[in-house]
Amino acid sequence: MKIARYLNFIAVAALLGSAVYAYSIKYETMRYAAEITKAQHDIQRERDGIGMARAEWARLSRPERVQALAAKHLDLQSVNVDQYVKAASLPEHTAKVDMIGRKLEALGLAEPTATPGGDQDSPASSATPSPKR
User: Fold this and answer.
1) Distance of alpha carbon 109 from alpha carbon 111, whole angstroms
2) For 9, how many CA atoms within 13 A lie in the half-sphere containing its CB?
3) Mean pLDDT, to the nearest integer, of 32-52?
4) Is the pTM of this model over 0.85?
5) Phi, psi of 62 (to 5 degrees)
6) Quick check: 18 and 26 in contact, CB under 8 A?
7) Is 123 in a helix, a strand, or coil?
8) Vertex 75, ends 57 and 55: CA angle to 5°?
9) What's the pLDDT tens digit per position in 13-36?
10) Strands, DSSP E only, in 1-133?
11) Who has greater pLDDT, 117 or 59?
12) CA 119 → CA 102, 113, 122, 125, distances in Å?
């Protein structure tokens, strides 16, 4: 008889434990659903804000508005259709100058440096060997 009581007590405890576990899963699921709903509302609010910003940008960048502001605040001259220049009157293209290289040469730092662990006399030793596969 004592074994039956003991088994009944274990069954009731297991039933209560499983009920608590089931309710905890239910409320955790409800909390996650609320978080998802909140995130969806936040996303929609951001999309609405982006739409408002695009509409405002479209309003502010209208050509007639920009032209009126340019005429009011900039001293621009109108361009004639026949204004053009010949290629010969353009300035010569200058070669690109390596300013950092020139500064290193002026400081005496432009010479090649020795690689660690390599033979300093051999130029081939400065290259790193590729790993063997």
Assistant:
1) 6
2) 6
3) 97
4) no
5) -60, 135
6) no
7) helix
8) 5
9) 999 999 999 999 999 999 999 999
10) none
11) 59
12) 28, 11, 6, 6
First CA to last CA distance, the chain: 75
- Region at 132 (left for phi over 0; alpha for psi -120 to 50; beta for the rest): beta
Token pair belonging to 75: 């001293």
Name residue, tokens 């899963």.
25
Looking at 61-111, list the stretches that DSSP marks H as alpha helix, in order from N- to C-terminal side.
63-73, 99-107
Nearest to 121 by CA among 110, 129, 112: 112
Position 21, amino acid: Y
Task: Give me 47's structure tokens.
Answer: 């999309």
Task: With beta carbons less than 8 A apart as the criterion, state whether 116 and 126 touch.
Answer: no
> In this structure, what are the phi and psi dihedrals at residue 128, rounded to the nearest 5 degrees?
-85, 135
| Gap between the Cα atoms of 102 and 113, Å rounded | 17
Helix (H, G, I), strand (E, B), or coil: what is residue 78?
A: coil
